[in-house]
Write a structure and sequence with these properties.
27% strand, 109 residues, rod-shaped, transport, SH3 type barrels, translocation, alpha+beta
Length: 109
C-alpha cells in the first residue's frame, strides 16, 4: 500500500487541460465584433433599400446605379419606366434604382 501512495499523489498533482471556454473566448469575441461592425449595418442597409424600392411611385425622381436620372412614369413588379428627357423613356430594373431625389431636383438642373 505504501508503494502505490506516491503514484496516487503524482496523479493528483498532474496539471489539468486548459478550460475550453477560455480557449474559444477570443474567437467568440471576434465573431461578436464582426457581427456588429459588418453584418448588422449591411442588413440594415438592405432593409432600407427594400423599403425605398417598394415605396416608388409615379412622379418620383430617381437616379439609377449607372448614374441616369429620370422621372418615374410607370412602376411594375420588376421593371420601372423612366422619362430621362421629354418624350424619351427607358425601362430599368427596379434594383438598379439607387436613390430617390427630392421633388423638383431635375427641373432645377
Amino acid at each position: 500500500m505504501i508503494a502505490s501512495m506516491p503514484f496516487v499523489l503524482a496523479q493528483a498533482a498532474a496539471p489539468q487541460g486548459p478550460n475550453s471556454l477560455l480557449t474559444f473566448a477570443p474567437l467568440l469575441v471576434l465573431f461578436v465584433v464582426f457581427y456588429f461592425v459588418m453584418i448588422r449595418p449591411q442588413m440594415k442597409k438592405q432593409k432600407e433599400t427594400r423599403a425605398m424600392l417598394s415605396a416608388l411611385a409615379r412622379g418620383d425622381e430617381v437616379v439609377t446605379s449607372g448614374g441616369v436620372a429620370g422621372k418615374i412614369e410607370e412602376v411594375g413588379d420588376s421593371f420601372t419606366t423612366l422619362e430621362i428627357a421629354p418624350s424619351v423613356k427607358i425601362r430599368v430594373q427596379k434594383g438598379a434604382i439607387s436613390q430617390v431625389l427630392p421633388k423638383g431636383t431635375l427641373k432645377n438642373s
